[in-house]
Design goal:
Elements: E1 17-18, E2 20-23, H1 25-34, H2 40-44, H3 47-51, E3 57-62, H4 65-71, H5 77-87, E4 93-97, H6 110-122, E5 127-130, H7 141-149, E6 153-159, H8 168-181, E7 185-190, H9 197-210, E8 216-220, H10 227-237, E9 241-244, H11 258-267, E10 270-271, H12 276-293, H13 308-311, H14 315-327, H15 334-347, H16 357-371, H17 380-386, H18 399-406, H19 424-430, H20 439-447, H21 449-460, H22 470-497, E11 505-508, E12 513-516, E13 532-533, E14 538-544, E15 547-552, E16 557-561, E17 568-569, E18 574-578
Parallel strand pairs: 1-10, 2-3, 2-9, 3-4, 4-5, 5-6, 6-7, 7-8, 8-9
Antiparallel strand pairs: 11-18, 12-14, 12-17, 13-16, 14-15, 16-18
Helix pairs in contact: 1-14, 6-7, 8-9, 9-10, 10-11, 15-16, 17-18, 20-21
């Protein structure tokens, strides 16, 4: 399999320079535009045409697709990969791999990272774009080593952002560290679409000079409207491949349109190797898919958001942030959140905004707005981030704020994964008997215990008695959500007013979400039924916006829980009583 791409200068005017294109339609495009709601059947119906179009690679897995497959679509993500590989034999498959985070929002033990890479290769994955949200090389090394061990193409990554501490020199230093780890190519990941043409020329020029034999690929989003122009500059500077999405699935917070980029590049003497007639056929197909899958909220998004040049929220996070605010009945407060986010990011050490840091900083910004007081409500993930459990922050957090964010958590300076015991056998032992169908299920559970368990139980149930697929319910509700919103709000208020009086001090859910009696799956209970608690003790959590939000005891006494573990709750709902 040829996983290289050329960036050699033309020696004659009649010789076209080759630049390749990776198609993101099957992963990042619908993650950015539709909160990752494309189904496997949607993909398989057009996969053969896409395979024959002439792309360098097909990004079709990783990122949020794994979680969403199980949580919302009730699909097996491993089976999706196998089915795509069965059809796509000509074009290498590509995935987004979050280094030590794999596909999740925390660090996983090295044995889980290695086994995941092995099974991904075995099931058909070819190219692994491996990145770390903080650009901490310590969080990349195990993943790079594992991918190469099992025959995959390890693509290193620069998570691009701008700040007082992010410079070309630092980026080149990072790239050379990854080169020493054995990467096969390097991607500049401009997740927010803020890389300007001039900055691209400067950065790529420096990288080419420092690593002349390293193939360079560029990934961007059209959020700011600059990405297509930036791709042209990147190609001229020496990049050999760029990421695009078929036009119906492009632009906004997605990638630049393939057809337009092909025309731009070919008019300037580059050869992309793509078949425009076949692209037109593929685009027609996705027009029909769009009519079924596009959430109503996505159709209202403006084509260009110049505000991204200030708040720097990546494409996938934009759609998720809207969705999350809507879940909290607070979509009207999006402008406040976008104003708050750059301040929160600066306070937290200028992390690049890419999963999981985009989620951590984004949700913390939401909480800062909804609570009315900055950092008065802090997620467990923010605590661990501030304490170094995600890696080194690009810039130090002010000592006073760091102490506040960490709470009682002790800061660390070592590689976070060094603190983790092997996890594969523990994951296998934790799954109830009869639910595992293959080794891949153990990996799914290791990454997303509650989500995977919910999917396994649904899969094992009698098809005639299964609960509806969440995404089907979601699509049905979306058709009438706008009209029903005022009535639903009024009904909720009336219900709250009619709620019975509580004997004791109520413990309230601070957000809409899922109630848990532990701060993360697999950890011991934070407060047992009937236990004595003190004011300020963390007694339970609400998972909202994919992060865990501890609920603290507002009074001292014995606690009695009113909600079952894993059940949905609404903001202001009484989840426990302290007497």
């Amino acid at each position: 399999m040829d996983t290289g791409f050329s960036r050699k200068k033309a020696v004659m005017k009649t010789t076209k320079k080759r630049i390749r294109i990776t198609d993101t339609t099957l992963r990042d495009a619908h993650q950015s535009l539709w909160a990752t709601r494309m189904r496997t059947d949607d993909i398989l119906k057009i996969a053969e045409e896409i395979d024959n179009a002439g792309y360098y690679s097909l990004e079709c897995w990783g990122g949020a697709t794994f979680d969403v497959c199980m949580r919302f679509l009730r699909e097996n993500p491993w089976e999706r990969l196998r089915q795509i590989k069965k059809v796509c034999r000509k074009t290498p498959l590509q995935m987004l791999f979050r280094g030590q985070n794999i596909l999740g929002y925390k660090h996983y033990p090295d044995d889980i990272v290695e086994r995941f890479a092995a099974l991904a290769c075995e099931n058909g994955m070819d190219i692994f774009r491996i990145f770390d949200a903080l650009n901490d090389p310590r969080n990349l090394e195990t993943a790079i080593k594992a991918v190469k061990k099992y025959g995959g193409h390890a693509q290193g990554t620069i998570s691009y952002t701008t700040s007082p501490v992010h410079t070309v020199e630092k980026y080149v230093e990072l790239a050379k560290e990854q080169q020493s780890m054995g990467i096969d190519s390097l991607c500049i990941k401009d997740m927010a679409g803020i890389l300007t043409p001039g900055a691209a020329r400067e950065l790529i020029g420096a990288l080419v000079k420092a690593m002349p034999s390293m193939p360079i690929q560029v990934h961007s989003h059209m959020t700011s409207g600059m990405a297509a122009a930036m791709y042209m500059a990147a190609a001229e500077a020496g990049a050999g491949c760029v990421d695009c999405a078929i036009s119906t699935m492009s632009s906004f917070s997605s990638q630049p349109p393939t057809e337009s980029v092909v025309s731009i590049l070919e008019s300037e003497g580059f050869d992309t190797g793509l078949d425009q007639l076949r692209l037109a056929k593929i685009n027609d197909y996705f027009k029909s898919v769009k009519a079924k899958r596009q959430p109503p909220s996505s159709s209202k998004v403006e084509a260009v958001d110049a505000g991204v040049l200030v708040h720097a929220i990546p494409g996938g996070m934009i759609s998720n942030l809207r969705s999350q605010l809507a879940q909290q009945d607070a979509l009207d407060r999006l402008p406040e959140v976008l104003e708050e986010l750059p301040k929160t990011r600066a306070d937290m050490g200028y992390p690049p905004l890419v999963t999981p840091t985009s989620q951590i900083v984004g949700v913390q910004s939401v909480l800062n707005v909804l609570s009315g007081k900055r950092f008065s409500m802090v997620t467990d993930e923010t605590k661990h981030y501030a304490a170094g459990y995600y890696g080194r922050t690009p810039s130090p957090i002010a000592p006073k704020l760091r102490k506040q964010l960490c709470g009682g958590l002790k800061p660390i300076t070592c590689r976070p994964a060094d603190l983790l015991a092997p996890g594969l056998f523990a994951a296998a032992d934790a799954i109830p008997a009869g639910l595992v169908q293959a080794e891949e299920d153990i990996l799914s559970y290791a990454l997303f215990p509650e989500v995977a368990l919910g999917y396994f139980k649904w899969r094992a149930a009698d098809p005639a008695k299964r609960e509806p697929i969440p995404a089907d319910v979601e699509e049905a509700k979306a058709k009438t959500a706008a009209a029903a919103a005022p009535e639903a709000s009024t009904a909720a208020s009336a219900k709250a007013a009619d709620a019975p009086k509580i004997d004791g001090t109520p413990v309230l859910a601070p957000l809409n979400g899922t109630f848990y009696r532990s701060d993360a799956p697999g950890k011991p209970e934070m407060a047992a039924e009937g236990a004595s608690v003190k004011v300020g003790d963390a007694v339970c959590v609400v998972e909202a916006m994919k992060l865990f939000n501890p609920i603290k005891a507002p009074a001292a006494g014995k606690i009695a829980f009113l909600v079952e573990n894993g059940k949905s709750v609404t903001k202001g709902q009484v989840v426990a009583v302290i007497k």
